[in-house]
Amino acid sequence: MQGVAEIVACRAAADAAANKPEAMRCVSLIDRKLVKQTVMTSVYGVTPIGARAQIEARLKERRTDMKQKAMQVLEKTSQGSSRGRAAVAAAANSASWLLQSSGGSSLMEDLLGVKQPGMRDEYSWMDDKNVVWQVSKYLADQTMDAIGEMFSSARAIMGWLADCARLVAAENAPVKWHSPLGLPITQPYYKMQMRVVQTATQSFQVIANDVSSDGSSSEPQWLKARQRSAFPPNFIHSIDSTHMMLTALACSAAGICFAGVHDSFWTHAGDVSTMNRLLREKFVEMHTKQPDLLEDLLSQLQRQHPNVEFPPIPVRGKLVTSRVRNSRYFFS
Questions:
Q1: How far is CA 258 from the centre of its chain?
Q2: pLDDT digits (tens, 9 = 90+) for 254-287
Q3: What is the pLDDT of residues 13-32, one digit of tens each?
């Protein structure tokens, strides 16, 4: 994430130097926290629209935090004084360094009803939803480009998964696969059909998935776009859940407690070191088995749809999976 933030910051600095308005407004706000959610959800197929909304939320949080900190400084500085408004104005002067980085004169007017001459208003644009939209769109585009640059292999594999799903959906079929544990998975995205049921006293509508609009029996109409867009994140989730189950089984075999929610694993404090070792071992085991996860998936799809020509698996990245065993922050 830090690497992505650095790339975005460098590009924004260059654009700011070229007088691009969006870059000039946000260049000093770019950090790891701003891009974290977008980086974390990129593997699950976050869209540019979703990325923009995520970054807009971070900007709004930043603006709220700025105002709260400025108010705290004003209140703290003016406490104990009996001189009323003059004391608050004096507090504003003493906290001018904070106000300059927190919204300047616009914030002064909000809090005090007075305007401080000569104060810079760097971030008042964050109170304009239209400008925030433009800046968050700019940052989202830069972040998505930086992710593609840093994680080119991962992005290529995500694209491959989506392409495979598109080919399956074109056959009016759902995407199906088995997890590494053998759990059968089917994406349940199809067009819902409404059927009118008439009784002696009333009529009502029910969802009838196995009938057409005229009441005759029909095959489900699978939602092609949804099948395609949902497959990359769903496949990754199936791998994550397999890792959690393998870790749970290993903990049980080792005689220690285990509880988990998605990617959060818990055990008693005295057993954390054991669980840390086991979860790394199971991750390496799952990702080094042959055929590997993508080869196995391709084989499954080819058996299900022998008449479909699926694209080849993209070139993989250079991560040495076994190094995960000694990675402190792989899971923390």
A1: 26
A2: 999 999 987 899 999 999 999 999 999 999 999 9
A3: 999 999 999 999 999 899 99
